[in-house]
Amino acid sequence: MRALAAALLLAGAPGFAFAQQTPPVVPPPPVAAPPVIRDRPISGFVIDARGVLAKFGQRAATATALGVAAADLPGPGLGGAIGAHVYPLRVARVALGVGGEMVIARRSRQPVDDSGEPEGANLKARMFSIAPQLSLNFGRRNGWSYVSAGMGNASFETWAETASAAAPDRRVRAINYGGGARWFRSPHLAFTFDLRFYAVSPGFAAGTLAERPRQRLMVLSAGLSVR
Predict the structure, then answer these.
(1) Is 18 helix (H, G, I), strand (E, B) or coil?
(2) 127: which residues sit within 8 A by CB, 6+ positions away?
(3) Full-model pTM
C-alpha cells in the first residue's frame, strides 16, 4: 500500500508543478488614437467657385433715363463667382485671410405692351467686380465662418440693346463687404455660401450712358470650395 501511494504522488507531481508555473496573460498595450482632424487650425488656402444671385433693383431714375417703366427693368441677375484665399496667420480658432474674387451677373428683359407683345428695345443689366479681399475667419479645419471686405474695380450698367449700342464698360471703384461660411464634408471639398454688398461709386455720363448715382447691390452666392 505504501508503494502504491508513493507511485500516485510521483505521477501527480509534474502536473501540479506545471500548473503552478504557467505565466500570467499580459494584455497588449493600448493603441494610440489617430489625431482628430477637426481640431486642427483652419486650412492654409481655399479656392471657391459659386453660383450668384444678384439683386439689381428696378430704380425709377434708371427707368426714366431709358424711357421705360421701372417694372420693365431686368430683375435679379444670375452669374458666377471665383476666388482664392490664403491664410498666412492662424492662431487657435482665428485666422487672417488674404485673397480676391471676381463676380459677374447679368439679366435681360423685353418690355411688352398690354396685349403681351414685345415692345421697344431689349433691356439688359450687367454687374462685374474684381477686387482683393481681407478676411477674419473663425473656426476649425473642417468648418469655419468669416467676415471680409475689399475694394476694387466694378461696373454696374443697365442699357437698351440696339444695333448701334455696344455693351457698356464703365469701370468705377466699388467697396464690397459681407460674410459667409465653409463646411468640409470630405478632406478636400466643402459647401460654401456668401452674402455680400457692393457699394458702387457714381458713374458719369459717357456716350449713350446716362449719369448713374451711387448704387448698393446685394449678392447672394453658394457653391464649392477646394483646398
Answers:
(1) helix
(2) 54, 56, 77, 79, 103, 104, 105, 106, 154, 155, 156, 198, 217, 219
(3) 0.77
